[in-house]
């Protein structure tokens, strides 16, 4: 017995796709995190500025575009569910390791820039493609809902980052030397604020592991029959049609019609070896045609008598 009604599955897929994009879109919160990461790196002896740390965001975008090129091939080889779950683990791993190596600018570029961008790009099209299979007639609306989650992600992560790192609203301090002879920049020097930055990266990794994985799981749900047998490939499943049928049944019906229309004068390989069966089928066909002709003749004579 199915736990969930079939009609609820498309909406669970839509909710899962939205939840996944809401978490994977953490890239849009880099602007808020930049000032804290830069201050922490400088506190650990790294001679970096905001411009240097912003390269992590640029590297993520570059890696995102490159990995999207191989995303389709990976999805075909592993399947949508395995692919999106693997990307969830990659994203979790990138932020978890970033919390351990937050003191190294190079490692942040590799992990938050490269590894996160790789996982994001490979799975980028999966939430949309999964929802398209269930909502053929409302793809514009569905696309807006799923994609909007990426833009809404900063509304989730930016307040969370500020709350966990700087809940007392400590102000940054102006640096003594400006970068490249330019205007002086402000960085945080409060020990409590700086000590919270690796902790926030770890919390973000756990949040994504939980909600991102749940979203990816629901986004790749499939419609199954009462006996657990997979119905139409989800892309061909029509939610509004009450007379849903298996594709094989429809194809079989078309084949039967074609065979009935071409019965006269056609013999299969099996019947070629048995002439008696061919003769019997020919006699049966002749008798049916004769009966049909007699019925038509009687109707015609009856009409004349009247």
UniProtKB/TrEMBL annotation:
Record's GO cellular component terms: membrane
Gene3D superfamilies in alphabetical order: MFS general substrate transporter like domains
One MF annotation (Gene Ontology) recorded for this entry: transmembrane transporter activity
Compartments where located: Membrane
Region of interest (Disordered), ranges: 264-306
Keyword list, A-Z: Membrane, Transmembrane, Transmembrane helix, Transport
Biased segments, Polar residues type: 265-285
Topology class, membrane: Multi-pass membrane protein
A family per Pfam: MFS_1
Coiled coil: none
Bias kind Basic residues: ranges: 291-306
Bilayer-spanning residue ranges: 12-33, 53-70, 82-99, 105-128, 140-157, 201-221
Name of this chain's protein: Major facilitator superfamily (MFS) profile domain-containing protein
Species of origin: Plasmodium fragile
